[in-house]
Amino acid sequence: MQRKLLFIPLLFILLSAFANTETATDSTEEVTIQSLRYDTTGTITIGNNLATFKIPAGFKFLNPEQSKYVMSELWGNPPSETLGMIFPSEANEYIPTTWAIEISYEEDGHVKDDDAKDINYDDLLKQIQEETEKINPERKKLGYATYEMLGWASDPYYDEESKKLHWAKRLLFEGDSSETLNYNIRILGRKGVLVLNAIGGMDQLPEIKSNINNLLAAVNYTEGNRYQDFDESVDKVAAYGIGGLIAGGILAKTGLLAKIGLIFAKFAKVIIAGAAVAIGGLVKFFTGKKDDSAQS
Q: For a surface tag, which of 8, 10, 193, 256 has the fewest beta carbons within 10 Å of its beta carbon?
């Protein structure tokens, strides 16, 4: 751990030097550290006209292609179909000193919220902890760090009127001495749920909580995709309710775990968990070649 931390000053200097490089980003070009560009104002369309995000003051948006690069290549997470990322304006995506939100979508059907008032969150927590233990061998087999679900960082809360659900988990990843925060937001829609996963450290919880309402108000489904647009004659109903969303959406028929978020618990560890990737990117930038030693 200490040896890896020695990379921080060198990487910080090198990455900072190129953070403001004015290189045009083309969708056909390879995404690199120095090519990342953000939208800082206006309204962003999420997915195929699925929803909109009106960028609030103090935040910026990273498009899907660049977000996949940050989540997988820089931060070392399993690949996923992200629809974009939201960063606080002051965020440094290279060596994260703050938090970020990844956006994705799960089209598993219309989620009924009848169970919302009857959930025992203590029992649900125990269930999630048991499922995490069961799924860790699969994460390890896939080459990703295992983790422990320590408890709630913020108790689950469901707003029945807006159909927006949020809760926070305290996670401890294998080989890491500090806890990771996953602040989960689910926005229920006609055919599925928008997934907003705020990733950071436990010390960022107060800041995230203070911005949640502002961010929730900025994300909304387009007409035809809203919760109230559900048509029971043609639309599929999800196999789980609010409790299932929080627990991870267990598939009843197959017994598979972690359909939503257990295998793919996210972390933002450029130096500690993704140092080899970051260093390899720098070597490639300077030399045009891959660094074989950094990938071993």
A: 10
Among 60-64, 96-100, 138-142, 193-197, the least confident range: 96-100
Residue ranges and CATH numbers for the domains of the chain are: 2-295 (2.60.120.1690)
* Cβ-based neighbours of 2, under 8 Å, separated by 6 or more: none
Euclidean distance between CA atoms 221 and 164, whole angstroms: 11
pLDDT for the residue 177: 85
How far apart, in whole angstroms, are the C-alpha atoms of residue 103 and residue 90? Answer: 19
Over residues 36-42, mean pLDDT: 92
Cα separation of the two ends of the chain: 17
Q: pLDDT digits over 235-276, tens only?
A: 999 988 998 888 874 333 223 333 334 444 555 543 333 333
Digit-coded pLDDT (tens) for 126-135: 988 988 888 8
- For 291, half-sphere exposure in the C-beta direction (CA atoms, 13 angstrom radius) is 16
